[in-house]
């Protein structure tokens, strides 16, 4: 009887662990480009986006110009980020050049419910 309880308890732990993983949705960065409007190469900010956001459910991304490189300092740059939350859920967000330096782009994999969603 003691072995039976132990097996049931272990099974319960496995079931709970798999149930909690089902709802886990985290950011997987695909691509980020900082300054495409100024001639920057596509994907130049991808590594920085991955470093700051991968594995989070929400990320406030501010491009780190020191790590990305900033060859056109006088040009106000745009920012585009692409990410996935699941294998079939793809997102794109952008900041216009008018947003200015040190602007924040919010990426999220939190599901929204309610009106408008």
Name the descriptors:
117 residues; alpha+beta; three-stranded antiparallel beta sheet; two-stranded antiparallel sheet
What does this entry look like structurally?
By secondary structure, the protein is α+β, with helices and mostly antiparallel strands. Helix content is 28%, strand content 26%. The protein contains 3 helices and 5 strands. The strands form 2 sheets. The chain has a 3-stranded antiparallel β-sheet with strand order 1-3-4. Strands 2-5 form a two-stranded antiparallel sheet. A hairpin with a 2-residue loop joins β3 and β4. It is elongated.
Brief sketch in words of this structure:
Residues 1-23 form the signal peptide. With 117 residues, the protein is α+β, with helices and mostly antiparallel strands. Helix content is 28%, strand content 26%.
Which structural class do you get from the secondary structure elements? alpha+beta
How many runs of DSSP E, i.e. beta strands?
Answer: 5
Major pleated sheet: 3 strands, antiparallel
How far from one another are the termini? 50 Å
Shape: elongated
Number of helices: 3
Strand arrangement within the widest β-sheet reads 1-3-4
Number of domains: 1
Which regions are unreliable across 5 or more consecutive residues at pLDDT < 50? Answer: 4-22
């Amino acid at each position: 009887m003691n072995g039976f309880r132990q097996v049931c308890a272990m099974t319960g732990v496995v079931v709970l662990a798999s149930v909690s993983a089902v709802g886990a949705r985290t950011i997987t960065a695909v691509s980020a480009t900082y300054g495409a409007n100024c001639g920057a190469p596509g994907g130049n900010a991808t590594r920085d986006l991955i470093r700051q956001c991968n594995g989070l459910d929400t990320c406030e991304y501010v491009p780190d110009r020191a790590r990305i490189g900033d060859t056109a300092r006088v040009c106000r740059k745009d920012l585009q980020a692409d990410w996935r939350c699941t294998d079939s859920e793809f997102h794109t967000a952008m900041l216009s050049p008018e947003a200015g330096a040190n602007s924040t782009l919010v990426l999220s994999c939190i599901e929204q419910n309610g009106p408008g969603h």
